[in-house]
Amino acid sequence: MSQRFTKLQDSCRPNSAWSPKFILFHKPKGLLVTTKDEKQRTTVYEALPPFMLKDGWNPIGRLDKLSRGLLLFTRHGNLVDLFTRPGICEKWYDVVVRGRVLEEHLSRARQGVPTDFGVLKVHHVWKIREIGPKTYLQIILKEGKNRHIRRLFHSFQDPHYQTPLKVVDLKRIRIGTLTLDLPAGQWRYITQPEENALLQSANAP
Length: 205
What we know:
- The longest helix is centred in the C-terminal third of the chain and has 10 residues, at 192-201.
- By secondary structure, this protein is α+β, with helices and mostly antiparallel strands.
- It has helices at 3-11, 50-54, 77-83, 103-111, 148-154, 192-201; strands at 23-27, 58-60, 68-74, 91-98, 113-115, 118-120, 124-131, 134-141, 166-175, 178-179, 187-189.
- The chain is globular.
- Strands 1, 2, 3, 4, 7, 8, 9, 10 and 11 form a nine-stranded mixed sheet that branches. It has a two-stranded antiparallel ribbon with strand order 5-6.
- It has six helices and eleven strands.
């Protein structure tokens, strides 16, 4: 464990004056975000300390099995409801797509695309670079449905091969005022200033 990470943990431990409401976790690929899986697949709780499941720390939102990045947990049901409400806070993602993403695709993604799963859209999207057959994007969502980004880009065709675009890597890097700052598989309490800023950004009481 790094010295910086140890210092973060020590500075965020609960004390008599303040008890943290959130835990930040860097979810690796391959873990399901659920308390129990009927098929006995590995869940996030197997990578987290036992007290989190025992004491009722629940995830705020989801990341699918193949996605990674910032995931928040809380024991407060009202905060789960608040931060899963559409439009409450921005969620930032680094995304890698197999195939060539055109400006036309990005424009349609901003406007909204009708699919079998409803209208899917992004709040902002930028093309960062293209390397070989892959396109690197940064995306902001204000409302996220199940597999939102994957399904949105799957609805577009690669202009050369005429096959659906495919998201091959998706990493959430920010929620509201919180930025991912941990190695994969690590967790920490968020600090009191971070908590205040997050709640303020969501207009929480």
